[in-house]
């Protein structure tokens, strides 16, 4: 993922040649015992096998990129801002010290930088990412537009990601475990009944359905088999291509359905704000 897509990110903290001494200082050997976990760390799970691989690499090559830490208020200890896997792997490798950049950071900046690092490395699953954005909204009073500007996405993307938190817990577990993708989850959000949504998710996982098949299932559950469905035809490759092209163009899920005579186009939106945004694009 390109770094310029996510604000200044870690490039604002570390350059290849120097560290900004006005707000940061580099320490080549810093005691691991003085570093505490980031209380705003968005990642919920780290693969143990991945830590072993990183530890092996650190033993052989050392730590190439410093960890970023900030001083804990009224204490001689420090909070980790970025580099959780490197810290855990260093402990696993038996290291007593690690290279760090000490940076003055507020709680909001600690969360923002942790999110930016993880998203840049594609380390967060959809639920972890959504939870982090929700925390920025609830704890720091940031709007979806403000969050979008800080992490380099558009507002609609942030809104859609936060909506994932409305999914029932059993379905969240499927996402956390990698059984369902973000696309599957967003498709199933169209099912309003909680029990039906959980059952649909289970069916999607068991049958290995694609996102488009999950969307069709959600529509079937939400709207039932009305008499008009008898004249629907299975969409062909060309129709699916046009649906995908229109979805990418608008930034909203679009469905083109072929029927015996003609067809229909459905574009999904979730609130008045998204409808206004959609109408601007269409008009």
TrEMBL record:
Asked whether the UniProt record includes DNA damage among its keywords, one would answer: no
| SUPFAM superfamilies membership | KorB DNA-binding domain-like, ParB/Sulfiredoxin
Q: Which Pfam families match?
A: HTH_ParB, ParB_C, ParB_N
Query: Which InterPro entries does the record associate with it?
Result: Chromosome_partition/occlusion, HTH_ParB/Spo0J, ParB/RepB/Spo0J, ParB/Sulfiredoxin_sf, ParB_dimer_C, ParB_N
Q: Residue ranges of the ParB-like N-terminal domain?
A: 28-119
Record keywords: DNA-binding included? yes
Gene Ontology biological process terms, A to Z:
chromosome segregation; positive regulation of sporulation resulting in formation of a cellular spore
GO terms of molecular function: DNA binding
Q: Which UniProt keywords apply?
A: Chromosome partition, DNA-binding
The terms describing its cellular component in GO are: chromosome
For this chain, the family text in UniProt reads:
Belongs to the ParB family.
What this protein is called in its record is ParB/RepB/Spo0J family partition protein
Naturally occurring in which organism (per UniProt): Candidatus Dojkabacteria bacterium
């Amino acid at each position: 993922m390109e770094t310029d897509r996510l604000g200044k990110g870690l490039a604002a903290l570390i350059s290849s040649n120097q560290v900004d001494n006005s707000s940061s200082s580099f320490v080549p050997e810093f005691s691991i015992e003085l570093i505490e976990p980031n209380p705003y760390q968005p990642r919920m799970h780290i693969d143990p096998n991945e830590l072993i691989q990183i530890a092996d690499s650190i033993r052989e090559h050392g730590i190439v990129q410093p960890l970023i830490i900030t001083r804990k208020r009224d204490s001689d200890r420090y909070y980790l801002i970025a580099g959780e896997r490197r810290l855990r792997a260093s402990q696993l490798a038996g290291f007593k010290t690690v290279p760090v950049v000490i940076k003055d950071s507020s709680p909001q900046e600690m969360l923002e930088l942790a999110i930016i690092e993880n998203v840049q490395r594609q380390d967060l699953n959809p639920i972890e990412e959504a939870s982090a954005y929700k925390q920025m909204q609830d704890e720091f009073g940031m709007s979806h537009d403000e969050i979008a500007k800080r992490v380099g996405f558009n507002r609609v993307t942030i809104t859609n990601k936060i909506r994932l938190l409305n999914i029932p817990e059993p379905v969240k577990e499927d996402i956390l475990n990698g059984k369902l993708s973000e696309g599957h989850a967003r498709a199933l959000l169209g099912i309003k009944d909680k029990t039906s949504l959980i059952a649909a998710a289970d069916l999607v996982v068991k049958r290995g359905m694609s996102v488009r098949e999950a969307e069709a299932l959600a529509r079937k559950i939400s709207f039932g088999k009305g008499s008009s469905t008898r004249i629907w035809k299975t969409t062909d490759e060309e129709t699916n291509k046009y649906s995908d092209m229109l979805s990418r163009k608008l930034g909203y899920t679009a469905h083109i359905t072929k029927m015996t005579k003609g067809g229909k186009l459905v574009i999904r939106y979730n609130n008045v704000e998204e409808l206004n945004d959609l109408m601007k694009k269409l008009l």
